[in-house]
Write a structure and sequence with these properties.
This protein has 208 residues and is mostly beta strands. It has a single domain, classed as Porin (Beta Barrel). This is Outer membrane beta-barrel protein.
Length: 208
């Protein structure tokens, strides 16, 4: 009898604890959600005429799939802030489809999000914020050309978390960044590249 009562009490405690955590998850206030994603960068590849004359869109930047980590803090069940991070990424630059060199960029992004259905199995969200991209290790035209050092622009986001349990979730995410840079040859502006990439992401999240 004692063993049976102990088992029942343990089951009730486990159930209550699980329900309390589910309620905390739904409430979301003060909660942290960490995600890891694989993200494909698809640049728009628009550019001004080189030297101010001739055809547009002659300069292009390579697409790439990169790892990404983001940290979201929930101020309320619906409102969160997300910081998106990765390490410096290497891209190839093309002029008239010919490889003219490489550069690296680091693109941290800070977004304010609204989650429409917090705590539900599928929770869609939208976000808007700022992207700051810094360019480094420019090696264009054997050192004869480079990109402007920084780019600051608007970032837009839409996605959804698919809840697996009280902690784990799948994530699907799309971001659009305004990312532009002058192309400098001999220190003078030769063109302006409008990378403006769309980022398609899929990953997993863990809620603390």
């Amino acid at each position: 009898m004692k063993v049976t009562i102990a088992a029942i009490l343990a089951s009730l405690f486990s159930l209550c604890a699980g329900s309390a955590y589910a309620a905390d998850y739904a409430a979301g206030s003060g909660s942290l959600l960490v995600r890891a994603r694989a993200v494909h960068i698809n640049p728009a590849d628009h550019s001004d005429p080189v030297g101010g004359a001739g055809a547009s869109d002659r300069i292009a930047v390579s697409s790439k799939t990169i790892p990404e980590v983001d940290i979201s803090y929930f101020f309320t069940p619906n409102v969160a802030a997300e910081l998106v991070l990765t390490y410096p990424q290497k891209h190839t630059v093309y002029l008239d489809r010919k490889d003219i060199g490489t550069f690296r960029h680091l693109p941290p992004t800070l977004l304010a999000q609204y989650h429409f259905m917090p705590g539900q199995t599928v929770s869609p969200y939208v976000g808007a914020g700022v992207n700051w991209t810094t360019f480094s290790k420019n090696n264009l035209l054997n050192g004869g050309a480079s990109l402007e050092h920084d780019s600051i622009g608007l970032a837009l986001q839409a996605g959804a978390d698919v809840r697996l349990d009280n902690r784990w979730s799948l994530n699907f995410d799309v971001k659009k960044l305004r990312l532009r840079s002058d192309v400098l040859i001999g220190g003078a502006k030769a063109s302006r590249v409008k990378v403006d990439p769309v980022l398609f992401g899929v990953g997993v999240g863990y809620r603390f």
